[in-house]
Amino acid sequence: MRKLWALCRKELQMYFFSPTAYVAFAFYFLVSGFFFSMDFLGNQTVDIRPLFGNFMIVYLFVIPLLTMRLVSDEMRQGTDELLLTSPASLTEIVVGKYLAAVILQFLLVAGALVYPFILSRFGALDLPVMWLSYLSLFLLGAAMMAVGLFASTLSAHQMVAGIAGFAMLLILWMIEWLSGSLLPKGGDWLQQFSIASRTANLQKGLLDWSDVIFYLSFIVVFVVLSIQTLERKRWK
């Protein structure tokens, strides 16, 4: 556990030494702030829920930026061999890197709390709906981070890893639409794997544990895939 947290701290330091993280944060808050001002000025209602669809779309671009260097940078610099032969296990290495990414994503979610604070100056907010909506945003982001981590294990080139992560996330995002148009008969079954639609109940203020379990299972699957990919590279 000590090695895991040491790796997590090292990865967090790397984030804040890299301009990519600052660019991603600036893009996230600039775009989300624009959407917030447009929604509030256009609707004049004290309701935070319309914003979350915009937040989620911005995640499609921000998450690949934040995850593309997690493993690919190690492979590009040749330090992956040192990392893979270190006393830490592959599981500790991957989970440590993933936890650093999730902590960074938590900062994005926490920073977005400024918007309900502003809205609260103009009227009362539905607090259970608000907190569950933010929980949905965090779970979605954590799941997307796991996909981005997996994409980062596939190539030594950050740009390739970022594009691969974006492509996978886009497919998982559009799976509900694709299942309805391409597979009208089996679409209902496929729609269950849509990472975006699983936020709907939480954003309505309904805590459905099946949605929470879905995201946690999704995270575990892609973290395990990342470990297996690196395991194969170790033995090549």
Would you write up a description of this structure?
The protein is mainly alpha-helical. The chain has one domain. The protein is about 80% helix and about 0% strand. It contains 12 helices and no strands. Helix 2 packs antiparallel against helix 3, helix 8 packs across helix 9 and helix 8 packs parallel to helix 12. The protein is globular, with a radius of gyration of 19 Å. The chain starts with a helix and ends with a helix. About 35% of the residues are buried. The mean pLDDT is about 80.
Taking all Cα atoms into account, the compactness measure Rg is: 19 Å
The largest pleated sheet is described as:
none
Strand-pairing-aware structural class: mainly alpha
The shape is globular
Q: Determine the N-to-C terminus distance.
A: 28 Å
Note the run of SSEs as H and E: HHHHHHHHHHHH
How much of the sequence lies in strands comes to: under 5%
Question: How many domains in all?
Answer: 1
Give the total of beta strands: 0
Q: Detail the poorly predicted runs.
A: none
Write the layout of secondary structure elements.
Layout: H1 2-17, H2 19-43, H3 49-67, H4 72-77, H5 80-84, H6 90-111, H7 114-120, H8 127-152, H9 158-182, H10 187-191, H11 200-203, H12 209-234
Descriptive tags:
single chain; 236 residues; mainly alpha; 12 helices; 79% helix; 0% strand; globular
